Amino acid sequence: MKNKILVTGATGTIGTFVCKQLKDRNAEFTALVRSREKAMSLADQGIEIAFGDLSDRESLQKAMTGIDKLFLLSTTSPLSPELQGNAVQTAQKAGIKHIVKIAARGSSPNADFNIGRWHGMIEDEIRKSGISYTFLQAHTFMQNLLFDAESIKKDNAIYNIQGDGKIPMIDARDIAEVAVIALTQGDHHFHKTYDLTGPEAISYKDIANELSHLLGREIRYINQTTDEGRKNMQSSGMPEWLIDDMIHLNKKYAFDEASEVSPDVENLLERKPHTIRTFLKDYKMHFE
Fold first, then answer.
1. Beta bridge pairs of residue 50
2. Are strands 132-138 and 98-104 parallel, antiparallel or unpaired?
3. No. of helices (H) and no. of strands (E), the chain
4. What's phi and psi for 237, nearest 5 deg?
């Protein structure tokens, strides 16, 4: 008997891949969507849609009717504990059996950065709900490099404050594949927390070298000061809480304090995670 899955964050980076991979597996699932415009793009792919919002418990209750499993993901913000908490509480009332939640590496109610603390608070709420869970604590997404596409195209440069530090970035496609496995493989992944990383720790200098080789022109890595980085992030419209997190995390990354590679992705997918070379090759058109 198939379990029916509700996918939140269905039109985001990871959620889009989750929906595609669930559809490829002929899984029974519904995508929770707020925007009718975005809903049309999913409906055109033959994906079942439910309209709802994590701030609207009535819409969540309707969407979760007949649902067995929940993929929980939303835009991270100071409202995340409240919004995802609404989903957890509604799931508990609806009798949902399993929640697969995307979180950040190092998530904990006592984490020393906002994103990790908010995710940790939600993880605690899920534990207390009595619902079986799988927590996917993911490191930095390779897809975040798309935010550097403009400077790569215009300046032939990547700007960051990470120094020469290395981190094992992960491809969001691999995160989605792990999520789909957790959602479709029975109870094998109940009450588990997985640490999701790429196959190797890499620096921005390494990324610039890979891009130079791929694009056939020199791409430089420019290590900014903290003040320069803060000004750039402010000019892009990034909220102050996120700027504070990015500065805090990048200071740690600069000293290789989060460079450990986890075996979890390889063990779960039974293959190596995507390398930065594979990612850049697949996304080449964004950097040309």
1. 32
2. parallel
3. 12, 9
4. 90, 10
Tokens of 218: 């020199």
What is the helix (H) or strand (E) element at residue 102, kind and residue range? Answer: strand 98-104
Kindly report, residue by residue over 16-44, the tens digit of the pLDDT: 999 999 999 999 999 999 888 877 888 88
d(CA 247, CA 132): 35
d(CA 164, CA 90): 45
Contacts (Cβ under 8 Å, ≥6 apart) of 98? 3, 68, 69, 70, 131, 132, 133, 134, 183, 187, 190
Q: What gap in Å lies between CA 85 and CA 80, rounded to an integer?
A: 8
Rounded-to-10 torsion of CA 241, 247, 248, 254: 160
d(CA 286, CA 150): 9
Going by DSSP bridges, is the β-strand pair 192-196/157-160 parallel, antiparallel, or unpaired? unpaired
Largest alpha-carbon pair distance within the chain? Answer: 57
All structural domains of the chain, each given as residue ranges with its CATH number in brackets, are 5-138 (3.40.50.720), 144-166+199-259+275-286 (3.90.25.10)
DSSP string, 8-75: SSTTSHHHHHHHHHHHHTT--EEEEES-HHHHHHHHTTT-EEEE--TT-HHHHHHHTTT--EEEE---
Give, in order, the Cα–Cα distances in Å from 79 to each of 5, 35, 117, 175: 24, 19, 12, 23
2 or 264, which is more confident: 264
Residue type for 195, please?
D
Helix (H/G/I), strand (E/B), else coil: 111: coil
Tell me the pLDDT tens digit for each residue of 222-240: 999 999 999 999 999 999 9
Is 74:11 a contact under the CB 8 Å cutoff? no
What is the rounded average pLDDT of the residues 1-26? 92
Q: Which of 93, 28, 84 is nearest to 53 (CA)?
A: 84
